[in-house]
Amino acid sequence: MPRSAYDPPSGSHDDEDSDDYERYHGPVTAPVSPTYRRRLPAHENDRLLGTERRTTYGAATRADTFFRHNTTGGTLRRSRHHSRRPSARFVPGQRTQAQLDDTPKDWNDDVMQGSSFLDERLWYDQFTSIDWVHDSIKDGIRLRELRSRKDFRGRMLALFDGAQGWILVAVIGCITAAIAYFVDIADKHVFELKDGICTTSWLSTHRACCGGESSCDAWNSWSQLVGFSRFDNESVDFIFYVFWAILMAMGACGLTMFTKTVVPSTIALSTLDENLGAESSNAPQSPSGHFASLRSNPSTVYYSAAGSGVAEVKVILSGFVLHGYLGLKTLIFKTLALVLAISSGMSLGKEGPYVHIATCVGNICSRLFKKYRTNDAKRREVLGASAASGVAVAFGAPIGGVLFGLEEVSYYFPPKTLFRTFFCCIASALSLKFFNPYGTGKIVPFQVRYVSDWEIFEMGLFILLGILGGTLGALFIKATNIWARSFRRISLIKGAPMLEVVLVAFVTGIVSFWNRYTKLAVTELLEELTAPCDPTGVTKSGLCPNEKDDILPVVKYLLVAFVVKSLLTTITFGIKVPAGIYVPSMVVGGLMGRIVGHLTQYFVATYPDFFLFASCPAVPGVESCVTPGVYAMVAAGATMCGVTRLSVTLAVICFELTGSLNHVLPFCIAILCAKWTADAIEPRSIYDLLTDMNNYPFLDNKGSHPATDQTLGDLSRSTGRHRTINISNSPLVRAKDLRGKLDYLLMAGELDSGLPINSALCLLTIGTGLSLIMKTVTQMVRCMISPSTLIHPPLLSTYIPHWI
């Protein structure tokens, strides 16, 4: 995995002071140790995250003592408390095989008991991967020791150990629901500051201030409060609306800036295949010069509170390490910034950030129990359940949350994790139901109920909406990619994220103010788009025309809102504020579906005797046969599928939002058509695009089919001589050559420094301490080489270190 590059020696050893040389290299007669530079004082370029995250470990001066301790320079994993027990000594002589045969049977047990294998948590560098095998073995040994106790105390400890996971996910679900309640209440109050204020209680919303009425004396707009005589009231309200939108967006961006993380350019962000491909080119630059040129590149900067965080959570659950991305600081700042970002009126949602926030809660709460605190693989089981609870509180859909964890984010999902995820989602949704943030008994405002069934002729329209939704989602991904690679590549925009946020907020304010539907919050707009019309004809949304002549004006307003929301969603996604894409994409699809629904209403009202409409009930009213809200919900799910490529999850979420078994089939058909269409236009989902743009090393288990008619040589690129050890001609390898290859790998930023051997005799891996793993037919020996001049792979004079 990539890591910070290492500084090659700048001068020859002849010019150095003899005392310093012996201090770091050992006796003058011995070859130079390849690890001496990691025992030197740390340089500024060795920092991964700046001065506030710098960690330096000391090391012993003797080579054999140094090899038994972990150092910063080339260790993939570090434990806080190292084993002080001397390593087992193994000296092969003339009869090496006889000595191997005489190895005590309990040798592995002795090594395990004296090692630090099970002592503490392994600590990983930035932009590396966890050791799944180590953590799995560690947890298995822990369970074996726990279950070996047959007394009463041992049985109680085993029961408590099994209950820890259930207790933990219940706590995570309740805390996630509490945070969602705070965000729902806060953004509802702050959002309406753009329109005015309640004079009797300035913290009250418009609905609470006026008792549900559209207007009242207690609620005053900003034009009434300021009273400018030179301008009309609408102009004053417009100025204050844009002002508050920009101010809230700046506040959200400012809070996001506090989570800035700088990663030096020496940490390569490319995969191994890309690295090999780059080095296989015939570049005139030397290896040291090639990697030294990385220092001139700008550092990588990311903001852990920006965006939705779903792509990063997905990568983290696959084993990737992003320090601070799931910490308490990110949780606090992202929650506060999310309130301001939603209140600004920009076309973004809070449902995606809920996944990130819930995962932060899971990461923090996992420190309550040691088996999750010290085991990163076990912790990721909890993180997967936490991410699912974020979807449960975002849509009020616990089953949809479980399927989201199974289909989208979780990389490892055994049945035990499935049940705990289900329990976590139920705990979060039930807690939010008790909190009742909207005062209506709904978990989310866009929960709707349809009483009328759909007609047979509408199935063709649902398929059409699925195709249109998939096309719209795929085009959104392409437009987002183009916008990110064009506008955001401008030096002024790239160097000042706040400027882009201000521009987007300004454009959103001046465009959205004049249209009622674009002025609404995305959750309220989605509620109005998907809600069925009141049979009494009393409505405040303006989306329920009573006569045929009233349909086309409604379609005109919806068409304008559709164009505006589509453009605003494209330029908003990716700015440096917490921003989700779930509900904004559903709003765009809902506008499109509502337009199709009203046009269908108009056609049915114009040609009531058409043979396809023979099954429509003979009841007066334009909504007697067609319900536009159903079209909006179908198109909303299809568009979200085109953006995220969720399939089963979305069908279940739509069912849980509507509670209608009659409409499950239209939802499924439209989502299926949307996924097929979107995959044909753009194979990547929006999160796959973000993963590729950020160069995260994510191994997708849903990728293309493996090639069965090609060999590995056809698929992989040729490697340079610095990366392999060729013993085809001679089994002898000079230690000087090994040290040179190791230096090359360290400069390349590879932590494991693994070197494949071109031979069938053994498997040899050179580690950062020149560790070798030799595998023969009869034995496997884990060892470390001393700085000898010649090394014969089958016969090694070595030290056997503590168990890794």
Can you walk me through this structure?
The protein is mainly alpha-helical. The chain has three domains: 1-75 and 82-115 and 720-804, no CATH class; 163-269 and 304-435, Orthogonal Bundle (Clc chloride channel); 459-533 and 540-693, Clc chloride channel. 51% of the residues lie in helices and 5% in strands. The strands form six sheets. Strands 2-14-12-11 form a four-stranded antiparallel sheet, with no helix packed on it. The chain has a two-stranded antiparallel ribbon with strand order 1-3. Strands 4-5 form a two-stranded antiparallel ribbon. Strand 11 and strand 12 form a beta hairpin. The longest helix is centred in the first third of the chain and has 40 residues, at 152-191.
Instruction: Give the strand order, joined by hyphens, for the main sheet.
Output: 2-14-12-11
The total count of helices amounts to: 31
- CATH secondary-structure class of the largest domain: Mainly Alpha
Question: How much helicity do the residues have?
Answer: 40-55%
**Which structural category fits the helices and strands?**
mainly alpha
Radius of gyration: 31 Å
Outline type: globular
- Give the uncertain stretches in residue-range form: 1-115, 268-284, 760-804
CATH superfamily of the largest domain: Clc chloride channel
Instruction: Give the rounded overall mean pLDDT.
Output: 76
- Quaternary form: single chain
Largest sheet: 4 strands, antiparallel
GO cellular component, one term: early endosome
Membrane topology: Multi-pass membrane protein
Transmembrane segments: 157-183, 238-258, 331-349, 382-406, 456-477, 498-517
GO molecular function: voltage-gated chloride channel activity
